[in-house]
Amino acid sequence: MKRVSFLFAIAFASLTAAAQMPNAPFGFGGNQNSDSQAQYSEKFADINYAGDDLASHTLDIYLPKEKKDKYPVIVHIYGSAWFSNSSKGIADINTICAALLEAGYAVVTPNHRASIEAKYPAQINDIKAVVRFLRGNADKYKLDASFIGTSGFSSGAHLASLMATSNGVKYGRCGKAEYDIEGTLGNYTEYSSMVNACCEWSGPIDLLNMDCDGIEKPKNSPEEVVMGMPKEGNEDYYKLLNTTYYIDANDVPVGMFHGDADNVVPCCQSDLLFEKLQQAGVKTFFIKQPGGGHGFNMYSPENLKKMVEWFDAARLGAKN
Q1: pLDDT tens across 137-148, in order?
Q2: Is the peptide bond before 253 cis (omega within 30 degrees of 0)?
């Protein structure tokens, strides 16, 4: 038995559920239908964070309904197997983002370059540039830059967790391989790209071990597309793609949700991340959702509440 193709499974699941619920906003994050749709006081749309004219370098900022002088920030990154450069408008808006807005967080949904547009580390360079841009424009958009967290689904979860564990890393090095993880994108390179916490959903974490559940992974996988090279013979380069490679005791809190019935990104990926974080003494939690699929049966009120409480606790810890 072979694992369902990462991209095909996401697209197929999205189209199937959309057909069953035609009135539900729908994106790569699974069912976007919720009892309470996202509520916000203001939206800043299609802001370019890189100082160029690429649609893949734009973001949206949502401010909570309750008006304040400034808001803590969560950057939420869409899933697409790194194949999309323009999915910020359908990135779990009515589930994850709605819960964060209701809890008083400004939510930022960025686009990033797709794997067919640019190879790794372009994608993490983009998200690092997003955070620098937000710090450089905090007053303009009423953002509290003292707390910026990351969230994401699927490949977006990979980038969200990689942001957390690569805090402060300029160059990633492993054997013969070296990547500029920070990058120099945008006009705000004097600002920090450091983030304060992460909560990720269903993310691929160790891209050399996507068959951790014993199911054979097909060739020409999305991770091979984003890397632009086969895994065999290039293991050092792939290690620099992995969230787990950068883990150390100084990492910010990283929590995770994963469905035990996920047939796209195996749940054992989160097992690996949780184990490595615990070994390093990093604050973490892992909710393994019974019957949860890839974006389905995941966004229960209990799980969304847990996510909000996780970020709230991280904010409190950052202040102490």
Answers
A1: 999 999 999 999
A2: no
Residue listed under structure tokens 């810890």: 317
Q: Give CA separation, 220 vs 108, 155, 224, 225, 278, in Å.
A: 32, 16, 6, 7, 32
| Lowest mean pLDDT across 3-7, 96-100, 206-210 | 3-7
pTM for this entry: 0.91
Q: 124, 103 in Cβ contact below 8 A?
A: no
Rounded-to-integer distance, Cα 198 and Cα 145, Å: 15
Owner of token pair 């983030």: 195
Burial letters 212-236, b for 16+ CB under 10 A, else e: bbeeebeeebbbbbbbeeebeebee
**Sheet containing strand 143-153, strands side by side:** 42-48, 58-63, 106-110, 71-77, 143-153, 197-201, 254-259, 284-289
37-51 pLDDT, tens digit per residue, is 899 999 999 999 999
